[in-house]
Amino acid sequence: MAMEQGDAPIPISALQHAVYCLRQAALIHLERVWVENRLTAEGRVLHQASDQPGERLRGGCRVVTALPLASAALNLTGVADRVEFIPCGGGPGGGDPGAEGDERAVLTAWQDWKSEERRHDFLEEKAPLGLVPYLQAQLLSRHLRGDIDDYPPWFWS
Known about the structure:
Number of domains: 1
Radius of gyration: 19 Å
Order of helices and strands: EHHHEEEHEEH
Structural class: alpha+beta
């Protein structure tokens, strides 16, 4: 499934809202309807600290707030509230980048997993697991635009 020319990037927040409730996602992201209540007001206040871009070290871990995210391949854009960069082995600065070790094993396992193919029931064909977020984002986008009636969920098999 190729991304169509001119498809606007999908906000990561739209995916989060859709997972919680498709109606909520449609109201917020299509109709631009938002009514604040006590819970959303509390959430807004609690997020004020994470909405401020910043970076600090905490216990050997680099913590970044309000980190912009974008993927042309997945057609996604958004802002992560908080991202923790945890060093892999070798002390406070992480492992030796040239050394064979944990990092290479983790990355190799991750690449192998992403290349495994599973059948996508809605598309009726096999797809690599690494493409599933992209495929689901595109299907959600098409559902929100009204191109398809229902959003087809992905079920792990």
